[in-house]
Amino acid sequence: KRNVLIIGAGGVAQVVAHKAAQNNDKLGDLHIASRTLAKAEAVIASVHEKSAMKVAGVFKAHALDAMDTAAVAALIRDIGVQIVINVGSPFVNMTVLDACIETGVAYMDTAIHEDPSKICEIPPWYGNYEWKKRDATKAAGVTAILGIGFDPGVVNVWARAAADMMDKVHSIDIVDINAGSHGKYFATNFDPEINFREFTGTVYSWQGGKWQENAMFEIGKTWDLPIVGPSKAYLSGHDEVHSLSANYPDADVRFWMGFGEHYINVFTVLKNLGLLSEQPVVTAEGLEVVPLKVVKAVLPDPATLAPGYTGKTLIADFVKGEKDGKPVEVMIYNSADHKEAYEEVGSQGISYTAGVPAVAAAILVAEGVWDVGQMVNVEELDPRPFINLLNTIGLPSYIKDDQGDRLLQYEI
Ligand code: NDP
To answer: Which ligand 1 atom is nearest residue 9's CA?
Structure first.
């Protein structure tokens, strides 16, 4: 399969565009389509500024409303792409997926579908939207890879890789720490609307074979991590818990996210005042406003944080289980540097870690290695070629177990 359409022109799309350009010998023609044409054009301009195209080739920008399935399908046919990397807002997943099924091209995204009118979905989230299209995807022979960013994405691949080293898996704990600093009083690393939605609802984790419900910031734990040192993280809800619990129902599956005290204080004040609500309120002047939209409008645009961002991210999977009747434990991890990411692709480290895996998956689909002709969550695919490829394109995986701490690399 060749020729790629990137949907969205935000922070993650910027990384996808640069990495796809760096690998355009394998991916063919490149296109980027977003709601605002100027943003898509700016992404391409930054690719050319860094001379990122590996070989001379096409990179075109298009205006597109990705909520309109017919428009997405028409564009796919018109430009002749066989792979769509959807890194638009999570509200557009289902319309883009439908267009891919209709046109028979491969689909991938980095987040679960969300309905803008709902603040909190009932688990398993994939079951509410994407998984309902499994049969249609298979009937069309379409490869649809769900959630191939970093988390979800690489962390699912690591969970599978660790599970493959064991006879039985007891627990999968995913820990996400951003030890970087953007230097602002308060800012979110990506769209505040999406970011806050993640933390205002019930925290679901899969423990003892059933969903456990907690409140955000209710359960904290300090994790001993390489590179960033001991870090406090809080049990949080996240996409990958929902697919991993379906694929490893006998294991406890938890997601932990690191927050500083300052973030928690500001978030708590905003939430308790009702400023994170998506329900409109009417002011004394009769003006109807959505508080969450107002908060988004006054916070720094996440895209503007990248130039001054310093420090590192550290994301790790801790997987415990049994091998030959003995307990085993592995940690698989990666650390990305915000400043290095900015210098390479013009984005901060969090967008970098989300965008690079999607391009690795597109390369594996283009090469036929991951072109499975059906809908899958990432842990259902062979992790080995993906981990090896990521090692060479900017996101190496390291493993720590009783044999030490080293690069995770497979001989295939
Ligand atoms: P941004 O908000 O920066 O960008 C989203 C882009 O989508 C914008 O360019 C926006 O257009 C575009 N868009 C929104 N609605 C439409 C529409 N109807 N039609 C066409 N384009 C549209 O988001 P990010 O780049 O930070 O994130 C992109 C995706 O990646 C999100 O789904 C996010 O949840 C996910 N993500 C995944 C991570 C992972 O590790 N798995 C980590 C970080 C993010 P406009 O600019 O005009 O508003």
So the answer is: 9
Terminal CA-CA length for the chain: 22
Digit-coded pLDDT (tens) for 344-375 = 999 999 999 999 999 999 999 999 999 999 99
What is residue 81's three-state secondary structure? coil
* C-alpha 10 to ligand 1 mean position (Å): 5
- On the 0-12 / 13-18 / 19+ scale of CB atoms within 10 A, 14 is buried
Confidence band of 119 (pLDDT split at 50, 70, 90)? low
- Of all protein residues, the one whose alpha carbon is nearest to atom 42 of ligand 1 is 354
- Distance between CA 245 and CA 254 in Å, rounded? 9
For residue 331, the CA-to-ligand 1 centroid distance in Å is 30
C-alpha 6/C-alpha 221 separation (Å) is 38
Q: Is 272 helix (H, G, I), strand (E, B) or coil?
A: helix
Ligand 1 center to 117 CA (angstroms):
17
Atom in ligand 1 nearest the alpha carbon of residue 88? 7
Compute the half-sphere exposure of residue 288: CA atoms within 13 Å on the CB side of its CA. Answer: 3
Q: Which residues contact 188 (CB under 8 A, 6 or more apart)?
A: 195, 196, 299, 302
Distance CA 186, CA 18 (A): 28
| CB-based contacts of 140, cutoff 8 Å, min separation 6 | 101, 102, 104
Distance between Cα 207 and ligand 1 center (Å): 31
Predicted-complex ipTM score: 0.98
CA dihedral 30, 34, 61, 58 (to 10 degrees): 0
Q: Residue 217 above 90 pLDDT? A: yes
Domains and CATH numbers, the chain: 4-150+352-392 (3.40.50.720), 154-345+396-407 (3.30.360.10)
HEC-encoded secondary structure of 98-117: HHHHHHCCEEEECCCCCCCC
Which residues have a Cβ under 8 Å from the Cβ of 90 and sit 6 or more positions away?
109, 111, 112, 113, 114, 194
81 φ, ψ to 5°?
-95, 155
Structural tokens at position 342: 């900015």
